[in-house]
Design goal:
The protein has 13 helices and 15 strands. Strand 1 and strand 2 form a beta hairpin. It is of the alpha/beta class. The strands form 3 sheets. Strands 1, 2, 3, 4, 5, 6, 13, 14 and 15 form a 9-stranded mixed beta sheet that branches. Strands 9-11-7-12 form a 4-stranded antiparallel beta sheet, with helices on one face. Strands 8-10 form a two-stranded antiparallel sheet. It is 35% helix and 22% strand. The longest helix is centred in the last third of the chain and has 22 residues. It has 2 domains: 291 residues, Zn peptidases (Aminopeptidase); 111 residues, Alpha-Beta Plaits (2-Layer Sandwich), CATH 3.30.70. The chain binds (2S)-amino(hydroxy)ethanoic acid and manganese (II) ion (2 copies). One manganese (II) ion binds next to loops.
């Protein structure tokens, strides 16, 4: 396995990386699609959590489960403060890829193994964290575990979240053996953190174009999720004249096209990736079409403008179709500018004069983005050769994964061994 650009030390693959990766790979993977269905508080989630706890305890780390269901593995005194924390998430989007989240968690354990193999002697505690429910695939809100810990989501807001079957987050936690009454802000825990660094597979191809295996994050685009409810009139598909219809599917379709057009014009992103139809019958005109918009842009003004234009397009079309439309913002994350001192420290640790490490923004949300409001936070990206993510086709080259582990080990050593 090769070293990484910039002439940093060659690193053999930490044996643990491959073993951990192989252990985790089958958990929650769907046999037909090859995609992952690791949703919050399900059996697959429990298996991932058991894997995390086993990794922590097999290394003699102090394992903790916090009030919000996030898992922590401490190397050093958890109470000492000023800890250098790394980690990511293990849950997935529906039919997600193997790397989004797990690469960060596996690389964290492998980087700690590398540090210990180097004989490094940190003078700050180190910790690895698995944040629960980062993708929001089941309950619709991203980064629930980190938002709760950071006080960006209240317990009552979280309790009210429901999945497609009407199961509340509280019921799901209880069925999984967790106490939903315990959830809430965890300032004491966040006060122990001096720096949080999340390694994540890049979700895009910017690194691939630089020729670097590893990059440092500069920012996260503002992004959010809006639910559009289009209400029309159920009727018979075979007997209702065209002019008599109030078909919400028409308004939905026009809104999807408008979203693409408005976003493209603004250099932003807009996606309707999830839709629900009632009664969802082949021979019935729908009474309700529910579409979820995910929109992102480089700045909050552009994002607000694009979403506003999409809402107006939907309202205009609804008026023409005799349909009612309502829009509910379900999730929003403001722009994240990673703390410059930590960002620059990572760039200095990983780059050389001749080969500075790429520093790049992302449109993907992360727990690091949520935590950045509470503690100094940074991210490392590992090259994704196709840029594809949130898909079973997501990939990263083995050498690049190892380069990521080496880079993370260098960062942890640089931050924790002063
Ligand atoms: O949606 C996102 O950007 C992240 O994958 N949760
Ligand atoms: Mn994701
Ligand atoms: Mn992720």
């Amino acid at each position: 396995m090769t070293g990484t650009e910039g002439g940093r030390r060659e690193a053999p693959a930490p044996p643990s990386f491959h073993t951990m990766w192989a252990d985790l790979l089958p958990i929650g993977r769907h046999a037909d699609t090859g995609g992952y269905r690791r949703y919050a508080w399900t059996a697959a989630d429990a298996d991932c959590r058991a894997w995390f706890q086993a990794q922590a305890e097999s290394r003699g780390l102090t394992y903790e489960l916090d009030r919000n269901g996030n898992q922590w593995a401490w190397y050093g005194d958890p109470e000492a403060g000023d800890a250098v924390v790394t980690g990511s998430h293990l849950d997935s989007v529906p039919d997600g890829g193997a790397f989004d989240g797990p690469l960060g968690v596996v690389s964290s354990f492998a980087a700690l193994d590398t540090l210990r193999a180097r004989g490094a002697a940190p003078d700050r505690p180190l910790a690895i964290v698995n944040f629960g429910d980062e993708e929001g695939a089941r309950f619709g809100l991203a980064c629930v575990g980190s938002r709760l810990a950071a006080g960006q989501l209240t317990a009552e807001q979280a309790h009210a979240l429901r999945d497609a079957d009407g199961v509340t987050l509280a019921q799901a936690m209880e069925r999984a053996g967790y106490d939903p009454e315990a959830i809430g802000p965890d300032p004491e825990r966040l006060a122990r953190i001096g720096a949080f660094v999340e390694l994540h597979v890049e979700q895009g191809r910017a690194l691939d174009r630089t020729g670097h295996a590893v990059g440092v994050a500069s920012a996260i685009w503002p992004h959010g999720r809006w639910r559009f409810d289009f209400r029309g009139e159920a009727n018979h598909a075979g007997t209702t004249r065209i002019e008599d219809r109030r078909d919400p599917m028409l308004t939905y379709a026009a809104t999807v096209l408008a979203a693409r057009e408005k976003a493209a014009r603004a250099g932003a992103l807009a996606t309707f990736g999830k839709v629900g139809v009632e009664p969802n019958g082949v021979n019935a005109i729908a009474s309700l079409v529910r579409g979820w918009l995910d929109s992102r842009a480089a700045d909050e003004h552009t994002l607000a403008t694009v979403v506003g234009e999409i809402e107006r397009a939907a309202a205009g079309q609804a008026a023409r179709d005799g349909v009612e439309v309502s829009v509910t913002r379900e999730s929003f994350t403001p722009v994240v500018e990673f703390e410059h001192g930590l960002r620059d420290k990572l760039a200095a640790l990983l780059g050389t004069d001749g080969a500075p490490v790429p520093v790049l923004p992302t449109g993907a949300g992360h727990d690091a983005g949520i935590l950045s409001a509470s503690v100094p936070t940074a991210m490392l990206f590992v090259r994704n050769p196709t840029g594809v993510s949130h898909s079973p086709a997501e990939s990263a080259a083995e050498d690049d994964c190892v380069a990521g582990v080496t880079a993370l080990a260098d960062v942890l050593e640089g931050l924790a061994c002063r």
